[in-house]
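Input for the complex:
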Amino acid sequence: MFKFLKKKNKNFKAIINSSMYKIDVKSGQNLLSAALLQGIPWPHKCRVGSCGTCKCIVLKGTIKPEIDFANVLNAEQLKSGYVLACKTALKSDIAVIVKIIK
Amino acid sequence: MKTLFVNIRYLIVPIMSIGTIYGLIIGGLYIWTGVFLFGLCIILDTITKNIHLKANFDKNGNSDGIKSLQYAIMYLMLFVFIALQLALAWRIYQYVNTTAFDTSIIYGLTIQNGITTINLIGAVISAGLWAGIGIIYGHELSHNKKQGFLMSRLIMSLSGASHFTYAHVYQHHLHLGNEDDPATAPRGRNIYMHTWLSHAGQCKFSYDLEKSRLEKQEKPFLSLSNKWILGYIYSLPSVILFIWAGGFLGLAALLTLWIIANFELEALNFMGHYGLIRGKGKNVEHRHSWDNDSVFTDWFFIAIGRQADHHVRGETYFWELDDVKGPNYGIGYFSLFLITLIPPLFRKYVKKHLDNWDTNFANDEEKKIAQQF
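Predicted:
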């Protein structure tokens, strides 16, 4: 009965660390969740945008921040293009760099 | 059918909140509807079974919860809680102006005008109990996008607690189980002391967070850019409403409502993490939160009882939270709430659960910290 309210999913692609990994990110899904679900050992801790552990640099593409990153990231990091992956939704295909420790 | 059930089972609070407003409007003994419904919840929570509910997904891995519907309900609850305050303010106005005891029929409803002192007390308690339940929406929306975050602030501001939205995300989730988190009650603390310490600690954190942010941006502390100050400004309409309605008595009624509401908010923090320990900077794991299997608690509190999964997967919508076999008190929140009101009884009840946690969940570092208590 409520099926008409369900949004249609739209997938985007994220290229991580110059093609080291390529993942699908569904519309509405955050970058960190998508990466973890697809087995990427993305550094993380709180998953709610309060610790900064999951930060990455967006090299290409458009993202949608889900919170104000300025509460965790400093001005220099924001200028460099850092975002918090756990609170980043995609608006296009993107390319990012993140420090992954295997 | 399954989709319908998954989505409407979380409507207990909206229905009961509206019932409380209805009682305030109808008047007479119906003023106590909110108190009656709260008592009914205690009974239902106590007698319903614990069911290890799994999160709801269809065979394609898509959630059965409908995000747009659930969010629409959460956003609408702001207006329900505003209506709750308006109804109470109207009754205070009637009391202060000694409105004559008679009946009016408005839109088919028979309304009893005028209110006795004892019923005014009932009205304040009814409204306070249900205003406090707004925390469940304030909590869920604090983990969401900018407009959801603002809605959380507005809902919490109705209880004078808009600092919660920042403190919950940037302090509680970061420092859970550690002495740096005022919302985590250490062993030996009672709910009354915790209400004050947690509220004050979270308020101070929000102050410090905002001060730091404004300093980084080279903006003055005293300005409308200050979100800590803005949070209190959001509460001003309530203050103005109640002062207009009843002067000092109106203000006293609002403060009483806020005390009740904040007591409920901190009770949830108290029950969710009492006595659990996590080393500083260590990853949050399922064992760092008390989980809750009561089906009534799950549906009433929109899965707030699934603390263990929520703190590990904070981005997850409430209808997708799962039973992860975390530490468990074995009873629902309403039943547990009653026990917490008698601190010696609570300490006696929780001892075996804490002993179990120390033995079966805690790591060596956490066991060492536990020995200090």
